[in-house]
Amino acid sequence: MKGGKLIIFSAPSGSGKTTIVRHLLAQSELNLAFSISATSRPRRGKEKNGEHYYFLNVTQFKKHIKNEDFLEWEEVYRDNFYGTLKSEVERLWAQGKNVIFDIDVAGGLRIKNKFPDKTLAVFVKPPSIDELKIRLKKRSTESDDKINMRIAKASVELATAPQFDHIIKNYDLETALSDAHKLVANYLAESSFKKDE
Ligand code: 5GP
Question: Which atom belonging to ligand 1 lies closest to the Cα atom of 13?
């Protein structure tokens, strides 16, 4: 697989990574396109198929696993599979884009390991687990059980932060957005001088 750069944002759910990724997508000079993941989790709120996710049922998802169609996949929560289809990254590379991912910690590190020379992996750190709880409750798109499941996973995910290229602290959103923009712009500028990429 050849093509543009891969920019990964991983973080516990509720850390604000989606807001950061959306902000970066709006900066046209970065030439980024969003990698739409496949998932077997139910649709939330106003989410659209083919825009936020490719929504599949568990059987369809498992068929793609069997066919080795995924660059990476994870059962992020029980029976909720998420994965990056190889065809998705190829689709965006064919458009001459750098690809940006909003994916979980394990998936992010897996892609980083597959493409170490063309990937920037960023971990977004929330101020605290308590603050995460408050943010997830405010979002109020899910039951308390689901929120608690996300919180339990967050503690494990926080421990992986040192394996990423950079950690952005999302304690103040404006600062986090500006830090993320600088980081990605610098990475794209530096790495564009490397051969083959
Ligand atoms: P949500 O259900 O809130 O949309 O996503 C739950 C978690 O799954 C988030 O941490 C999100 O970043 C992650 N996720 C989304 N797409 C993918 C993917 O393609 N692969 C992996 N490994 N995780 C994903």
Answer: 10
Query: How many C-beta atoms lie closer than 10 Å to residue 137's C-beta?
Result: 12
From 19, 55, 76, 136, mutation site for ligand 1 pocket: most ligand atoms within 8 A of C-beta: 76
What's the pTM? 0.91
Please write the tens of the pLDDT for every residue from 14-60: 888 999 999 999 999 999 999 999 999 999 999 999 999 999 999 99
Beta strands 119-125 and 98-102, pairing class: unpaired
Continuous segment of H or E residues that includes residue 195? none
What is the rounded distance in angstroms from the CA atom of residue 44 to the CA atom of residue 67?
A: 28
Residues 129-181 have pLDDT tens digits of: 888 888 888 877 778 888 888 888 888 999 999 999 999 999 999 999 999 99
Supply the angle between the helices 17-25 and 173-191 in degrees, to the nearest 10.
50
- The finding on whether 88 has its CB within 6 A of some atom of ligand 1 is no
Distance CA 11, CA 23 (A): 16
| Residue whose CA lies nearest to ligand 1 atom number 5 | 13
Neighbour tally for 110: CB within 10 Å: 18
| Ligand 1 centroid – CA 1 distance (Å) | 23
